Amino acid sequence: MSRAKSTLEQWRIVQAVVDFGGYAQAAEKLNKSQSSLNHAVAKLQHQLGINLLEVKGRKAYLTEQGEVLLRQSRHLTQSVDELEQLATNLGQGWEPNLIIARELIYPMETLVEALKAFLPQSRGTRVTIIDSVISGTHELINNKQVDIAICTTPPKGHISEPLCEAKFELVCHPNHPLAQVGDIEDDKQLAQHLQIVIKDTATNTTNDIGWLKAEQRWTVSNFHEAKTILASNIGFCWIPNFVVQQELASKQLIRLRLRGSSQRKIIMNLLIPDRDNQEPACKLLESLILQQHNES
Question: Which residue range or ranges hold the HTH lysR-type domain (predicted)?
Fold first, then answer.
């Protein structure tokens, strides 16, 4: 294995001389003598066999070759700084990864706002978001496969913090036969038409999202797929109102009026599956998610 000719310290000195405009300025900022900086750069240039800097008056300028090498050196020193910071974070118990389970009926935009506040303080923690449905979320929680879960009714043995209310609208295309009915008298009238439902994400289950009495049913993976089908004048669906706000406003879809149940509401909850072993990054993100709702 060949031995490196240069050191990180030498490259940091070159960067400082360039960034601060000269040897004297860099020496003052780094709290080193000017002669030591001159010696370090001269030695580096000798080791590499190439001139990196040239001095004009009191200011140091990069040569063409120096400009190319300095750019690469910044990537190198930044990577080492990040590596050392990661080691410090891990030593302090800061998690390198966080996994979040998000029920599809919880707005992604709301979660992103909390993540935006988390990012500057995250110390490089990687975040994975898993979209889940009903007992699929329970499965992730019970198996402790996620650090944070945003769910509807929590599974037995777990406590949770209420976040917000998810509202469902009963919708279809304006030209669908149900749209011509006016007030729908009861479930039996709905059951005569095709329903679009969202598949549960658990490994073994048949608990899909939605009222499930329709004889004809198409099951899809998410609400965006459901909207595509509805836009083709096929079926009806119970769907979160934030998903179809634009379509309802533009009358691409319409609300159906079901007597006694024109809108449905579900409480969304924040849950930490392994509270006893919760670590700093998870605690921070949990507080930011709660803060997002307290401020709204």
Answer: 7-63
Alpha helices in the chain (DSSP H): 8-20, 23-30, 34-48, 64-91, 108-118, 135-142, 187-190, 223-231, 241-249, 280-295
Question: 100 forms bridges with which residues in the sheet?
Answer: 129, 148
Distance CA 210, CA 238 (A): 6
Q: What is the pLDDT of residues 29-63, one digit of tens each?
A: 889 998 998 899 899 888 888 888 887 777 778 88
Radius of gyration over every alpha carbon of the chain, rounded to an integer in angstroms: 30
Question: What is residue 56's DSSP assignment?
Answer: E
Q: How many residues does the chain have?
A: 296
Q: Could you give the CA distance from residue 113 to residue 202 in angstroms, rounded to a whole number?
A: 27
Predicted TM-score (pTM) of the model is 0.67
CA trace torsion 254, 263, 267, 147 (10° rounding):
-30
* Phi and psi at residue 161, to the nearest 5°: -115, 125
State pLDDT tens for residues 200-212. 887 765 555 555 5
Q: Which residue has the tokens 């899809």?
A: 220
Question: What span, in angstroms and rounded, lies between the C-alpha atoms of 252 and 265?
Answer: 23
Q: Are 53 and 63 in contact (CB under 8 A)?
A: yes
Q: Where are the alpha helices (DSSP H) in 194-269?
A: 223-231, 241-249
* C-alpha closest to that of 184 among 209, 211, 166, 208: 211
Burial classification of residue 109, based on how many CB atoms lie within 10 Å of its CB (0-12 exposed, 13-18 middle, 19 or more buried): exposed
Low-confidence ranges of the chain (pLDDT < 50): none
